Amino acid sequence: MKLQNQDKQAELEQLIGNLNVSNQVFYEIQDKALSIKENISRNKKLIEALESDNQEAQKEIDNLQVSDTGEINFNGFDELSERISKNTRKIDTIRKVVEKFEIQLEILLMTEYEQHLKICNESALKCFSLIGDELLNEFISGGIAEELSRILTIFDKGGRYADVLKYSTDSNIRDYFLLMN
Fold first, then answer.
1. CA 163 to CA 156: how far, in whole Å?
2. Report field, pTM of the whole predicted structure over 0.85
3. Which residues form a coiled coil (predicted)?
C-alpha cells in the first residue's frame, strides 16, 4: 500500500517493520508452545505403552505354571518382575516430566504468548488505523466527496431517488449531523 503523504508512508513502513518483528517473536513463542505440546503428547503415549507392557508382564507372571503337586515354575519370574519394576520407575519419571511441562506450557501461554499476541494486535491496529486515516484524508482532499455530493444532488433534483435521498438533503437533518460531527 502506497500513501500519497511521504511522511505517513515512512511512518507506515516503520509500523509494518515493527509488526513484522512482533510477529516473528510471536511465531517463535508459538512454535515453542507447539513443540512442548507435542512432546507432552508423545510422553503420554510412552506412558500408555509402558503401562500396557506392565499389564502383559503381570499376565505372564499370573500364568506361571503350577505343577500337580503345587510346585511353581519360576522360570522367567525375576525377569518379568524386573521389567515391571523398571517400567514403573520410567512411568513415574515420565509423569513428573509431563506434569512439569504442562505447567510450563500453561505459564508460557498465559505470559509470553498473551503478551506478544497483544503486541501484534496493537501493531496491526496502528497500521490499519494509519492507512484508514490517510485513505480518508486522500478521499476527502481528492474532491471525490464533492463529486459524490453533486451526483446525489442531481439525483435528488431529478426526483428519481427522492425517497431514498429525502433525509440526506433535508437541511435540518444535515445541519444537525454537521453539529454532531
1. 9
2. no
3. 40-67
